[in-house]
Design goal:
Layout: E1 16-18, E2 27-31, H1 35-45, E3 49-62, E4 66-80, E5 87-102, E6 108-110, E7 117-119, E8 130-132, E9 136-138, H2 139-150, H3 161-165, E10 168-169, E11 175-176, H4 183-197
Parallel strand pairs: 5-8
Antiparallel strand pairs: 1-9, 2-3, 3-4, 4-5, 6-7, 10-11
């Protein structure tokens, strides 16, 4: 759901394409950023590293002047396990599926108060389209957003399963230390109970 997304600008894997002359069957773009771009992307995503990133995005017309992006995304993302603090690699997979309309489209209008755009769409329908300024749409920026939204914010390695079973977590994913009974306090209670019985 891109309405909740980062709305990135100047992505390190930016790949703008001109969508004003799409063929009838659409156009497929394959993005495979090199190691330098992936290193910059990892910094943006606040992870240890990103490698093997590949996205195959098909760009087609949607309605009169809109554009639809759809296709698979996969990447290897190295993060720090929230339990063991050891580095771990996760395979991130997602399906990109997003609609875009020009900011001049009749499906959008400018709000009177701040001259920004709002989308006129049935609230019972699917997610509203995003807006872009034609003729270019940044495919790389969309891939960046979907990858960011697909990364586990609280990664746990397989080695941490036993620890996870014995640990409670706060809302932010951090482990919560439980207060365990003091064995000496238990013995003292038993001694006091015995003294009271006599």
């Amino acid at each position: 759901m891109l309405r909740e997304s980062l709305r990135l600008e100047g992505s390190p894997i930016s790949h703008p394409i001109n969508v004003s002359s799409l063929p009838t069957k659409g156009r497929t773009i394959v993005l495979q950023p090199d190691a330098d771009d992936c290193a910059r992307l990892a910094d943006e995503l606040d992870v240890l590293s990103v490698s093997g990133l590949r996205a195959e995005v098909t760009v087609t017309r949607w309605q009169r002047d809109g554009v639809r992006l759809k296709g698979p995304l996969t990447a290897n993302v190295k993060q720090t396990c929230v339990l063991t603090l050891e580095p771990m690699v996760s395979v991130v997979e997602a399906i990109i599926d997003a609609l875009f309309i020009p900011d001049t489209s009749k499906l959008s209008r400018k709000t009177a108060d701040n001259d920004t755009h709002a989308i006129l769409i049935d609230p019972e329908s699917d997610d509203a389209p995003e807006m872009f300024t034609p003729p270019e749409l940044d495919i790389g920026g969309v891939v960046h957003e979907f990858l960011a939204l697909s990364i586990d914010p609280y990664p746990r390695s397989t080695q941490s399963n036993d620890l996870a079973d014995k640990t409670n977590f706060a809302a932010d994913g951090s482990p919560v230390q439980e207060d365990k009974p003091n064995p000496f306090a238990v013995l003292a209670k038993l001694k006091n109970d015995g003294a009271n019985d006599t």
